[in-house]
Amino acid sequence: MVFGGVSYFSSISHEIAGTRSDPGGVFGARFGGSLALSPATSVTAGFNFGYLTQSADFIVPGSDRVLSSVDVGFTTILWKRTLLNVTGQFGLTGH
Fold first, then answer.
1. What are 5-35's pLDDT values in tens digits?
2. Pseudo-torsion of CA 20, 68, 30, 82, nearest 10°?
3. In whole angstroms, what separates CA 89 from the centre of its chain?
4. What does each C-alpha distance from 2 to 30, 31, 35, 85 come to in angstroms?
5. Are 26 and 52 a contacting pair, CB within 8 Å?
6. If you average pLDDT over residues 60-78, what whole number do you get?
7. What DSSP character marks residue 94?
């Protein structure tokens, strides 16, 4: 099975300690695939990508605007009504 999706997240402007903050939004995309190894076991791998649309008043020095990660998962049925799902996510960008 192959999967994919796109997303957008936007934060509401707010004021913290007298300073107005407008952090902007995040565009995201995810795609990957899942492979059944047996009727009870499967492995999944995916790639995640995010782009931060920061406004001029919310720039953090040294931060990345592009974020990406890879996730790898393993799922199996242990007993009737018991499923084990283990997933690890590994960042690819510096920050």
1. 999 988 777 777 777 776 678 899 999 999 9
2. -100
3. 9
4. 11, 8, 9, 18
5. yes
6. 85
7. -
